[in-house]
Design brief:
Strand content: under 5%
Order of helices and strands: HHHH
Structural class: mainly alpha
Largest sheet: none
Distance between the termini: 69 Å
């Protein structure tokens, strides 16, 4: 390609896009969005619903943890059975993991509801709060069921 032709192509592209920028997006769903085209809106109800849904997830996780506890009853630490010892190891790992998931859900639920209530926080502040959750509840490698030299 000749240099002159390249310069012409660049100039034509610059003319087409001069002073105008458009971000591609999906059309607004029926009943959603609204407002002036190009206007970003944050809906308190959506934040609150998200918070409530995460709170419901926490409730379900807590119920699962209770069932996990019920399933562990009757298995003593020193039962002499290798299968029971392995199950206890897995149970302890899952109990910790499910407890962390529950705690993460509780804090995230509160955060989402708070954002919905005050709507005054910046995106950066919200991102920082979510990053704190990721740090506090960092996933750990699986430990249950490993042979540990047996």
């Amino acid at each position: 390609m000749a240099w002159d032709e390249w310069e012409q192509l660049k100039a034509a592209a610059a003319e087409r896009s001069a002073g105008r920028m458009q971000i591609d997006h999906l059309a607004d769903p029926v009943g959603g969005g609204g407002g002036v085209p190009g206007e970003l809106r944050s809906d308190k109800a959506a934040w609150s619903k998200g918070g409530a849904d995460v709170g419901d997830l926490r409730d379900n996780v807590s119920k699962a943890l209770a069932k996990l506890e019920d399933g562990q009853k009757g298995l003593g630490k020193d039962s002499g059975c290798l299968t029971a010892a392995a199950q206890l190891e897995v149970h302890t790992s899952w109990e910790r993991y499910v407890g962390n998931v529950s705690g993460r859900c509780e804090k995230l639920s509160g955060l989402l509801e708070k954002v919905g209530n005050d709507q005054l926080r910046t995106d950066e502040a919200i991102s920082a709060e979510i990053a704190k959750l990721k740090t506090e509840y960092k996933d750990t490698p699986a430990v249950g069921g490993q042979s540990k030299g047996r």
